[in-house]
Design a protein that fits this description.
Order of helices and strands: EHEHEHEEHEEEHEHHEHHHHHH
Helix content: 40-55%
Shape: globular
Structural class: alpha/beta
Number of strands: 10
Radius of gyration: 20 Å
Strand content: 15-25%
Distance between the termini: 60 Å
């Protein structure tokens, strides 16, 4: 047996319908450089029974949240790279071999494209295809200027173990897909693969809320997480003298955009000041001209139309399935 190079940690909370598929998607690859551990985060359904029947290394802990469950798994693995696979998602056949061929000591994070599936496992659409590259400086610059960069959900990321250690400091965030994503380009290379090496399931219990009617609560949570994450990242960058280059949270496009959406979700008309700030920031985003035009038109229409129309349009825009400009306009009207 080769020593493990990658640890797959599956964290599960009440996903009895999906967790077996997640486990089998890893085991079936017969990868002798992979160590798999499953953490049941105090499920109240039959998830633990399902996990035990799969015959893999597994632990059951008191419900503590995704981050705590992930750290529990981290402490029980030793591979230099870690993939946190959500219990409702799956890896594609052969994905681990592809991932391992791209990893070396200079890689801080590897990300790959995901296929979206529904609760039955049927494909909902290709979703966003990531650009293929290996870089750190361009991505670090994007984080400094905007606070974000294009990255997939949790199951589409592999982290070097030392990057995962920052999870221990994130007492403000119960999720895993936070600070490690954004500190990684300051610690090494980011490898991005266009291949669809995983399957991301969209269903009624998703933490992200993709595919649901618009709800202000997740937007408030996103804004809080963004501000806390940015301040945490600023403290880390102070050690390298780069903190002054990091955008202030309230000046970031993401923050302004989410505040605009929050006003709509709460049944309010977004303030004119917020609308104008959003348009100014949009000019400097690295989006195709067509995308910028669609966003500007959407924002303008939500300022003019009744809130019920704006909420329908926002629900469509935040939906995780396939979207189009025509579909967005139809949702608004």
């Amino acid at each position: 047996m080769k020593p493990p190079r990658i640890a797959v940690i599956i964290t599960c909370w009440n996903y009895e319908a999906y967790v077996a598929n997640a486990i089998r998607s890893v085991v079936s690859q017969d990868c002798d450089e992979c160590e798999l551990v499953v953490i049941d985060d105090g499920s109240t359904d039959t998830s633990w029974d399902v996990i035990q029947r799969e015959g893999v290394t597994a632990y059951r802990i008191e419900n503590s949240g995704q981050r705590a469950a992930g750290l529990y798994g981290l402490e029980r693995t030793r591979a230099p790279f870690v993939l946190f696979l959500d219990a409702d998602d799956e890896l594609a056949p052969g994905s681990l071999a592809t991932i391992l061929s791209e990893l070396d000591d200079d890689v801080a994070k590897l990300q790959f494209s995901l296929t979206r599936i529904d609760h039955r496992g049927d494909t909902l659409g290709a979703g966003t295809t990531l650009e293929g590259f290996r870089d750190r400086h361009v991505i670090a610059d994007s984080v400094l200027r905007t606070g974000v960069y294009t990255t997939p959900p949790t199951s589409g990321n592999v982290f070097r173990r030392d990057v995962c250690e920052y999870l221990r400091e994130m007492d403000y965030d119960p999720a895993i897909d936070g600070l490690p994503l954004f500190v990684a380009p300051f610690m090494g290379d980011i490898v991005s693969l266009p291949q669809r090496l995983g399957r991301y399931r969209i269903h009624g219990k998703n933490f992200s809320g993709l595919g649901r009617a618009v709800d202000p609560a997740p937007l408030r949570q996103e804004l809080r997480r963004f501000v806390m994450r940015m301040e945490h990242l600023r403290r880390i960058l102070e050690r390298t003298g780069r903190a002054d280059a990091l955008v202030r949270p309230e000046e970031a496009y993401y923050y302004i955009e989410r505040n605009f959406y929050l006003a709509i979700a709460e049944g309010r008309r977004p303030p004119i000041k917020c609308f104008l700030s959003l348009l100014r920031k949009l000019q400097h985003q690295q989006y195709p001209l067509k995308t910028k035009g669609t966003i500007a038109a959407f924002c303008l229409l939500t300022m003019i139309l009744p809130n019920r129309n704006a909420r329908r349009g926002l629900a469509y825009r935040l939906n995780g399935g396939n979207r189009s400009t025509v579909g967005l306009l139809q949702a608004l009207m």
